[in-house]
Each structure stands twice: as C-alpha cells, then as structure tokens.
Amino acid sequence: MGWATAVDEQGIKASSSPLLAARAAAPHCQLTQSRKPYRHGGDLTIQADAAMVCDQEGKGNFTASLRQYQGLGIWRTKDVQGYRNRHDRSFPVTLLFDCSRLTTSGWIYRSNIGNATLRNSNGYWGDHNVFSQTATIHCA
Questions:
Q1: How far apart are CA 50 and CA 55, in angstroms?
Q2: Long-range contacts of 70-79 (CB under 8 A, 24+ apart)
Q3: Are 89 and 83 in contact, with CB atoms under 8 Å apart?
C-alpha cells in the first residue's frame, strides 16, 4: 500500500508529499578577483577587481583592499572598498591607486579579500583573507 492510499483510508488531510517541506539550502557564494593587480590603460592608475557573487539574496558584508609591499613583511593598504549590511546577491568592487612617476623602481602589489559574508533566513556563508598573486608594477 502506498503512502497516498494509507493517508486517504485514514481520512487524514496531508500535503501532497510524504516528506516534510525541506528547508531551503544555505546560501553559497563565490569570490572572484583579478589574478593580480595591473596598470589600467596607459595612465598611472593601478587597478584590481574583486567580487562576491551568491546564489541567494541576503545581507552581505564584503571588503577588499589593494596593498603595496613595504618590505620586512609589511603591506600598506592603498585602497579599500566594500559593502556593509547590503541586501543583494552580487557585491563587486574596483580598487584603484594612482602611483607616482617619481618612483623609478617597481613596487609589489596584491589585492586581498578581507571579509566576505552573506546571511539570510536559510543560513550563513563566509570566507576571509583571500589574496591575489603579487605584481611588480613600474609607474615611471
């Protein structure tokens, strides 16, 4: 005897499925960024792109930065962009830094996704400290 027949013979009102309504899956996001920072066109602007794209809408926090290596393990932040408590499913940013022609040697740059989270009624997704490859960029 099948489920529907058993329910009908007992006179029980039920849903059309023997399984309880399944809870929606927790959100999942993907982080993308430039492989490494680059000079934008022919000007002196160094650029890196980063984004968090999710399969569901929710309240998102996303922060990315462009950093310059100073030596001795020290990275100086040159630009920070992001979103705080924004309700969406896509969080793109463009990081920019204008370097000087007075610099004759190249500097090493990288981008960093520092914080990436999405929360909604189905759950939570998060990641942090995702670095791009480094790039030596000459501005002179």
A1: 17
A2: 75/110, 78/46, 78/109
A3: no
Residue type, 90: S
Which is nearest to 56 in space by CA: 88, 16, 18? 88
pTM: 0.77
Listed in sequence order, the DSSP H helices in 15-96 are: none
CA distance 133 to 137: 13
pLDDT values of the chain reduced to their tens digit, one per residue, 140 residues: 554 444 456 555 555 555 555 567 999 999 999 999 998 877 789 999 999 999 999 999 999 999 999 999 999 999 999 999 999 999 999 999 988 776 667 889 999 999 999 999 999 999 999 999 999 988 77
Query: Phi, psi at residue 107, to the nearest 5°?
Result: -105, 150
